[in-house]
Write a structure and sequence with these properties.
Two copies of one chain form a homodimer.
Chain A: E1 16-27, E2 30-38, E3 41-43, E4 46-48, H1 55-67, E5 75-80, E6 91-99, E7 110-115, E8 118-119, H2 127-144, H3 158-169, H4 175-182, E9 186-192, E10 202-206, H5 214-220
Parallel strand pairs in A: 1-6
Antiparallel strand pairs in A: 1-2, 1-4, 2-3, 2-7, 5-6, 7-8, 9-10
The first copy, chain A, binds a DNA duplex through residues 157-159, 174-177, 179-181, 192, 195-202, 215, 218-219.
DNA sequence: CTAATAGTGTCTCTGAGACACTATTTG
DNA sequence: CAAATAGTGTCTCAGAGACACTATTAG
């Protein structure tokens, strides 16, 4: 690999490498993405990579420091490499996706609604494109596994799960069909949620290692 | 995004950014990946990013210069960022995947067979992991579209397509079931291939914009 | 009781996979 | 003709989606 034959690195000018994170969340039957105010306008939280730092560590660091957010997993969405994408110079940015429960966000965090799979307000740089890709990645992951980002807690009712999936995929699902698609990947605890004016719903847990069948994907993407 | 508030870039040390390419091809009923000899052993073709260069341009450049290969599309597979992954220093590498027909490879190109979804010989650095991800990406793309990398030409018979898919997915498919899954995404030309000891097969073209249904994915991944 | 929500039995109809048949070529 | 490969008609059975019914709570 990688150039020449020696044991020294080339002395080409090197790019700055940044990390931007699209933190998605669900609230009021809609998807939202966390944003911060920057000198260049509304943007995703981002930072430059520190020496020797891992990309996911930088993603973790910037969420903590700029928004007080702790996310469990970061997913590489794509490297944005247009030479003129940042007018401060040559900056490559590794876009990351993450998802956190709305209730875990610190108060004061700015979120932008996602409508028609795009941010409802334009973001700076190429950050809107990053959000689009992050939503696609979220759907791909949610079509294979049950709420892998733990937007719901460890236990949840099937209604809660269905409503979450309806927001993530922007679709409606019949309750019986939805149930039969996802239940093979769930373990029912005996416990029930508190009744909300009707029969109490059973609480379910994700089965360890369970994956949704390909047929579930067909339903979800209608 | 991205640190501080000013209009200047930070003066942190910057990583070298490399591009490595896993060029996959199909030959003798098996998947292969193109490799090059490097001072550190068998490796994927790779190069450092030149100033202002796009990642895909670097991928194109390294294939041309190191192996004489021209690929049509490059897919970002993942950014490999372990700080100690390269003993020459701090080198991030953007792994790319590509696929080219075996017949388009220049003579003398070294290929390594892929067995059980891994290179049959260990590669240097983290390049074996890159190949694993490139194969996954290839399958994801081939499950959604008909031979999107044009490993077959513009026209092909259904037998050729089936054999290609059997290699890519490491599966066998019944000819009639396979046909019924893929034919909605194909246009039949009237023409036929030259007979090979039996009835000549019709030649098909990819329908523009056609995608394979989710159900096809279930068959392919058996 | 009624209202409200949770969960399931069951019917229908599509369509995937299997099998066998027909079609078209070479020798 | 036989042999070989291409392509299709059709049968069966699983299962997805729809509908309606039962179950369990609150008031």
């Amino acid at each position: 690999m990688t150039e020449g034959a020696g044991t020294t690195l080339t002395d080409y000018p090197r790019p700055s490498v940044a990390v931007d994170v699209a933190v998605l969340t669900v609230h009021e039957s809609a998807l939202f993405v966390v944003t911060v105010d920057s000198p260049r306008g509304l943007a995703l939280p981002g930072t430059f990579l520190h020496p020797g730092e891992r990309l996911s560590d930088a993603a973790h660091r910037v969420l903590q420091s700029k928004a007080g957010i702790t996310a469990l997993q970061f997913h590489q969405i794509g490297m944005f490499d247009a030479p003129d994408r940042d007018d401060r110079g040559w900056v490559l940015s590794m876009a990351h996706g993450a998802a956190v429960p709305y209730g875990s966000l610190p108060i004061g965090v700015k979120v932008v609604r996602i409508e028609d799979d795009r941010p409802s307000q334009p973001l700076s740089f190429d950050h809107s494109d990053m959000v689009v890709l992050a939503v696609e990645d979220l759907r791909r992951r949610y079509a294979s596994n049950i709420d892998p980002s733990l937007l719901l807690g460890e236990e949840f009712t099937l209604l809660e799960l269905k409503q979450l999936y309806e927001v993530v995929f922007g679709n409606r699902f019949p309750k019986d069909t939805f149930r039969r698609h996802v239940s093979p990947a769930l373990d029912g605890t005996g416990a029930t949620s508190v009744a909300a004016g009707g029969r109490p719903a059973e609480l379910y847990r994700r089965k360890v290692g369970a994956v949704l069948p390909e047929t579930a994907s067909a339903l979800l993407r209608s």
